[in-house]
Amino acid sequence: MVNGTIPVDGPTYIRVGQSGALSGTVRVSGAKNSALKLMAAALLAPGEFTIRGVPHIADVRWMGELLEQMGVGVSQEGGVLTLDVPEIVRPEAPYELVERMRASIVVLGPLLGRFGAARISVPGGDDFGHRPIDMHLRGLEELGATFTTSHGYIEGRVDHLEGTTVLLPYPSVGATENLLMAAVLARGTTVLENVAREPEIADLAVFLNAMGGQVRGAGTSTITIDGVEGLEAVEHTVVPDRIEAATYMAAVGMAGGEVEIVGARPEHMEMLLVKLREMGLDFSPTVDGLTVKAVGRRRSVDVATLPYPGVATDYQPLIVTLLATADGVGIVTENVFGGRFRYIDELLRMGADIRAEGHHAVIRGVDSLSGAQVRAPDIRAGAALVIAGLVADGETLIGDAHHVERGYQDLVGNLVSLGAEVSYSSPG
Ligand code: UD1
Fold first, then answer.
1. Which residue, 75, 174, 388, 417, has most beta carbons within 10 Å?
2. % helix, strand, coil for the chain, step of 5
3. Number of domains in the chain
4. Does an H or E element contain 252, and which?
5. Do the domain assignments include residue 3?
6. Which atom of ligand 1 sits closest to the CA of residue 131?
7. Whether residue 5 has pLDDT greater than 60
């Protein structure tokens, strides 16, 4: 067993013991969901980019591998990622990488914008269920691109993208990002309507504007982009990770205690804070973050996930876990991803009383959970199981822990620093 450090052959298990109240300070990394898109956006200009606050996680490594295969020089030291983008790149995203990380689809917009060509493996479904990319493709078609699909690859071509108005049928985060990145080098003005408003999209717009782009309205539901002739490489610091911050809030909510979360931005998680306050958690702002405090048992609440500024779907497994031992009955409605309740079977193994049907989960708070061997089906559900383990009687052994490493630079080490009984564990 290796305490606090990831085993060399990758984390296979996370072992969690029943822990007392948490205390101390923890710092969140830059947002994974922004860093990955900024890396893709770097394809829009030649030169050397410096991106700070980039977490050391598998998803960033894989996006780095994808860029390397395209011809980009990639190196990371600490949280500083350097990308050396050549004049010409190989505009292809192969099956192995897209299959591993479907977010790699966001290279499509920048490749079409700058090179007028892209060949990308069609992403399959994943643990959240069927995940189509129709809105990405339709929007890019409206900007003038044409697509053909053969042998599992989608090939996009365009002489030059032309600005127009694109109305998204749903505020998809990935489609908004792909269209935004494509439109910065399009001819004329593009108006994107009913777009996603997440803080990571606003961060992307800041990055693109620093590169010389003309983007207005990011963070609202209409983004206007005046196309420019060319862009240049820049330095940028990634917005802090609100989902990582929420994970530590949930850990304190579960185990009790008082923790300062440095880097947490309350203004990026207002609806979540409303719900957590209703559950009985206390928050107070600090100079560069917030302090979360929890005493006693939580109260049950009803929560529905929605696009930003609603409660993010990524928080949902954390909320369900908090409700699992809360006082009363809570109903959680998942409106964003059809298949995002699969981890609930693992919580049932730990003694939770949850009934999930379609988009709804009814959670009857139990007095206690009991440690069991469970499996992390994805990043956030894996983190939620770690947090469940903090209050479970005995030991919880979470398999497929590599999922957690995809999204958290050091969840185990950070929880240990707050006093939790958590460690990585190799098989055997
Ligand atoms: C991103 C985040 C993910 C988060 C999600 C919603 C990254 C790497 N991932 O995923 O953590 O949970 O936003 O906040 O940033 N849809 C379609 N057609 C499309 C595109 C999306 O039907 O062309 C559907 C999806 O299946 C899903 C919903 O729209 O039901 C939301 O997806 P979207 O906002 O695009 O999520 P991602 O960008 O994939």
1. 388
2. 35, 30, 35
3. 2
4. helix 242-255
5. no
6. 26
7. no
